[in-house]
Design a protein that fits this description.
65% of the residues lie in helices and 4% in strands. By secondary structure, the protein is mainly α. Strand 1 and strand 2 (155-158) form a beta hairpin. It is globular, with a radius of gyration of 24 Å.
Length: 573
């Protein structure tokens, strides 16, 4: 295995890939049986591995969006990406129409073909120019938000370095920080709204080209939702409103009492304890007056110890990840916000991208993205790469479940305050599910309305926000009070309709957490089986196979809400 820093980069050129795909498609047409088809597929796997430079570029560009070389390379891939998607779809179409399809389904599995069918409905060559236009808009959004700064006490700070300050135990400090952060977003509001208006127009045109009445229909094919649809998702949101919104209100009332506050305002939202939230004890303080973490290495070492103690499988995984430099976690000027996991196919290597901000997020993100990476690592030797295809709600279940399997090891990060972290994370899980449902309903209404504008989105967000979080008080924060909070959410720009997958996944993850308390060994064995079986069947079937209750069933939501309230009451006591 090669270290990340030593992975060579050379531009992947479209003309070469087009020629190779053309040859593969001709060989597939001539294939006389399933064995011959598989020989062609193995060549396709090699082609996919040879495209690893595209993923390297994506990561290295995100590590510094102001790096001129990788910015130009990424612009090139944004241009050829839709054309490559079309070539891939053409290849899949030949498989779908192959006279050897039945025999191929026995090898690849019927689920792989169901995903290919969905892919045909979600994209074709007519969308290439529109997809290229969309990519340029998203690149503009990345450049804008990655360079967002906040004026704070005489200096300009990268926006995501304000999190620790915004969670200060000092209420006046966090109020001023909240307003300063909002001023930063307000300064970019005009451009953010302009970008979104253009994205709305672009996506409406995409839906029209593909023959759909709205982008909502197109998006369900894009998200590869198999086994359920908009009707089931809408019913799920109603269950969340019925059972989790009341629970969230109880938790907020309890949090207010814990903080000694008669009334909670928006600047109190991120704080759970009067002495402040637990922060990783493995993070040394930075220089005087500097809130940045002084040692990311210490947090990574705690991560290594956690996974090493968890199981033989995770021990092998974390050694592979960290020994090969497959994690970039420090905040830097020009680095893109957020976190994700991707895979370098040539090396069958997962990679974690993150931003350590000195808060509890340092530990959380290595559990969440670690869950993604661990599942990818478990499947790295799978020869048939179609069996590695994950839809997003399943991928997020891997990640969110790992957050809870990691709970017994939080002393490594938080010392004596590990119990506080566990209680806080469980409370936050309730709010996360609700917030993702808010985002999903917001996007459905936005894309169903052919006349919706970014300005109109503000009023819609304000209305729905009050429905899902009726006790929120924005006080004097005009940016948030006027419904512009959606503009801070990258998924709303980049990945429409992804949000609900987090909510569905967190219900499954919490199911694992409840199961852990009943039978830790059985729950972990189920999780390993789930990770290994992902890519072989649809989400509802996988959840049932794992022994988890379906998130779409009312009884699952009732049981989980009751258990969580008991668990949090115990923690409070």
């Amino acid at each position: 295995m090669i270290h990340f820093k030593e992975m060579p980069y050379e531009r992947v050129r479209y003309e070469e890939l087009e020629g190779r795909y053309g040859q593969l498609m001709e060989e597939l047409r001539q294939a006389g049986d399933a064995e011959a088809c598989m020989a062609v597929l193995r060549k396709r796997y090699k082609l996919m591995a040879d495209m690893t430079a595209m993923d390297l570029c994506y990561v290295r560009h995100d590590m510094d969006v102001n790096d001129a070389f990788y910015a130009a390379e990424q612009a090139y891939y944004d241009e050829i990406g839709p054309k490559l998607s079309d070539l891939s779809n053409q290849f899949d179409r030949l498989l779908l129409d192959s006279p050897h399809r039945k025999d191929m389904e026995k090898i690849l599995g019927s689920y792989a073909f169901a995903l290919m069918e969905a892919g045909q409905s979600g994209f074709d060559s007519r969308l290439i120019e529109l997809a290229q236009e969309e990519n340029k808009l998203l690149a503009r959004y990345n450049q804008l938000t990655s360079n967002g700064t906040v004026d704070w006490e005489g200096e300009k700070r990268k926006r995501n370095l304000m999190t620790l300050i915004a969670q200060s135990p000092d209420r006046d400090v966090r109020k001023r920080a909240s307003l300063a952060i909002s001023d930063s977003w307000e300064a970019q509001r005009q451009e953010l709204e302009e970008i979104f208006d253009k994205l709305l127009d672009n996506r409406r045109r995409q839906a029209k080209v593909m023959g759909f009445s709205s982008y909502v229909e197109l998006s369900y094919f894009r998200m590869m939702r198999i086994g359920y649809g908009p009707k089931e998702v809408a019913a799920f949101r109603e269950l969340v409103k019925r059972y989790l919104v009341p629970l969230s209100r109880k938790l907020e009332e309890r949090r207010g009492k814990r903080l000694g506050l008669e009334h909670l305002y928006i600047y109190d939202a991120g704080v759970h304890f009067p002495e402040g939230n637990p922060v990783p004890v493995c993070v040394e303080p930075g220089a005087e007056g500097d809130s940045r973490p002084g040692s990311t290495a210490a947090c990574l070492e705690a991560t290594r110890q956690m996974y090493t103690e968890m199981s033989p499988e995770t021990a092998e995984f974390i050694a592979f990840l960290l020994d090969n430099g497959l994690a970039d976690v420090e905040i830097r000027k020009g680095k893109r916000d957020g976190g994700y996991m991707t895979t370098f196919e040539r090396y069958r290597a997962p990679f974690i991208f993150a931003n350590f901000d000195g808060t509890f997020e340092n530990a959380y993100i290595m559990c969440h993205e670690g869950g993604h990476a661990f599942q990818g690592y478990l499947k790295r030797h799978e020869e048939i790469r179609e069996r590695c295809w994950n839809t997003s709600e399943m991928a997020e279940t891997h990640a969110m479940a790992m957050e809870f399997f990691a709970m017994p090891y939080m002393e490594l990060f938080f010392g004596e305050r590990a119990g506080d972290y566990r209680a806080m994370h469980l409370e936050d899980a309730v709010r996360l599910i609700i917030n993702q449902c808010l985002q999903d309903e917001f996007q459905q209404l936005v894309y169903e309305d052919p006349n919706m504008t970014a300005e109109g989105c503000n009023g819609l967000w304000a209305r729905l926000d009050k429905e899902y979080f009726p006790d929120k008080d924005y006080d004097c924060n005009v940016n948030l009070r006027e419904g512009r909070g959606w503009q801070r959410i990258p998924h709303i720009y980049h990945w429409p309709f992804y949000a609900i997958d987090y909510a569905l996944a967190d219900i499954c993850a919490l199911g694992y957490y409840r199961w852990m308390h009943e039978d830790g060994e059985a729950s972990w064995e189920s999780y390993l089986r789930l990770c290994r079986e992902s890519g072989t069947m649809d989400f509802p079937s996988l959840v049932e196979s794992a022994g988890l209750g379906s998130p779409f069933k009312e009884e699952t939501m009732i049981r989980l809400a009751e258990w969580m309230e008991r668990k949090l009451t115990e923690a409070e006591g």
